[in-house]
Design goal:
Blueprint lengths: L9 H19 L17 H11 L6 H15 L6 H17 L2 H26 L2 H84 L3 H30 L16 H10 L3 E6 L9 H21 L4 E9 L2 E9 L13 H12 L3 E7 L6 E9 L7
Helix pairs in contact: 1-2, 1-4, 2-3, 2-4, 3-4, 4-5, 4-6, 5-6, 6-7, 6-9, 6-10, 8-9, 9-10
Length: about 400
């Protein structure tokens, strides 16, 4: 259990000191609320005044306790000549109990003060049997019930303002989270594009440059240098296209002419130039068309699979198969696994991650790993990408 700090607020100190000084001024001028009534010694009026001023110091720290004790002090003030400042300080305690008290105070204190006001009015009318007693009851209601309702209004507006500030902070936090997620997604997309565009060419350059350096044969060296030059030029063109995408502020995040499955033949030709034996089979219906994101993802999966085959596959045929049925485009690439005689290019695993991400973005499936085959042990990459209904011929 934690106790509230009893250190008074600066404004509470000003209210207490100002109230005490004002009460002393009125007392010195003999301006009492009910002179000639109660105890004859006017000095006794200063006791409720001092007590109520002291309770004003606790109007924020202990609002309910200050209100309860203040009511007792107000009753005490009725047995002396009375001070207007003591009455005013009590009204402030009622207001502070509602504004600074717990949420239950917003409901209970107005009800309590209302009941006290009604009971006082009925008791005064019954005691004096005079209409002026009803007017006195209204004054009592204004003193205790009026500040309570004012406090309720202020408390509700303050709570609404706090809620609006909290909602604004939450909205700003959500906006920042959305921005961070968007930046992360864009960085991942850029990483996939950069890897898919350039990795194939750089892998071919690495393998053929290693072959040119390790084999002392002029013809082989010339052929390797030719392949290196072709891949360097194509890789540079891909890099320029990617840079152009990044610099484009039109909002189009894909190249103006994104590669499609019709360009797989060009990929196959480049891979054969790099030394791969490839069998390509496309069983899709003639004239079929696919959504651009599906075509781009399938093309990148084939491209990355050929890059991996160039770096890691053993001697043998690399088989590419495209099929479309039941609203799915199936892309399957297999390559032989085994010892290789030529040099290998290092891999980081980013290609498999990129292929899996591309399939996941389209709500498709992706598998990659070793598998048995009639021709021996192979590495199989298979992706199934949903085709939007109505977009295939």
């Amino acid at each position: 259990m934690t106790w509230p700090s009893l250190r008074p607020h600066r404004d509470d100190v000003l209210i207490a000191v100002g109230g005490l000084l004002s009460g002393l001024l009125l007392w010195s001028l003999h301006l009492d609320t009910h002179p000639g009534q109660g105890l004859d010694d006017r000095r006794l009026t200063l006791i409720p005044l001092a007590a109520m001023s002291a309770l004003a110091l606790l109007r924020r720290a202990l609002p309910r306790a200050a209100f309860g004790l203040g009511f007792l002090v107000l009753v005490m003030d009725q047995f002396v000549t009375g001070s207007l400042v003591t009455l005013m300080l009590f009204t402030d305690l009622v207001y502070a109990a509602v504004v600074y008290g717990p949420p239950s105070a917003v409901r209970r204190i107005p009800i309590l003060t209302g009941l006290i006001s009604v009971a006082s009015m009925v008791a005064l009318v019954a005691w004096y049997h005079d209409a002026q007693a009803f007017l006195l009851g209204l004054i009592i209601a204004a003193v205790i019930f009026g500040p309570a309702m004012t406090g309720v209004t202020v408390r509700l507006w303050r709570d609404r303002a706090d809620t609006a500030v909290l909602r604004a902070e939450q909205t700003a936090l959500l906006a920042e989270m959305d921005r961070t997620q968007a930046v992360t997604a864009e960085r991942a997309r850029m990483a996939r594009e950069l890897h898919d565009m350039v990795a194939n060419h750089l892998s071919a350059i690495a393998i053929h440059s290693t072959a040119a350096l390790s084999l002392d044969d002029a013809k082989t060296t010339r052929e390797a240098l030719t392949v290196i030059r072709e891949n360097s030029v194509e890789g540079l063109a891909e890099m320029r296209r990617l840079i152009g995408i990044l610099r484009d502020d039109s909002g189009d995040l894909e190249p103006a002419a994104a590669p499609t499955l019709d360009d797989v033949g060009t990929l196959v030709g480049q891979a054969r130039t790099n030394g791969l034996a490839i069998t390509f089979e496309d069983t899709r219906p003639p004239g079929s068309t696919l959504p651009a994101p599906v075509e781009l993802a399938a093309y990148r999966i084939v491209q990355e699979s050929l890059t991996n085959a160039l770096k890691h596959a053993a001697q043998g045929d690399v088989r590419i198969r495209l099929a479309q049925a039941d609203g799915l485009l199936a892309v399957e690439i297999t390559s032989p696994i085994g010892p290789t005689e030529g040099p290998r290019a290092p891999g980081s695993g980013a290609g498999l991650v990129g292929m899996r991400e591309r399939a996941a973005l389209l709500k498709g499936s992706f598998t990659a790993g070793p598998a048995p085959d009639a021709y021996g042990k192979i590495w199989r990459v298979r992706a199934e990408l949903p085709v939007t209904e109505g977009e295939s011929a």
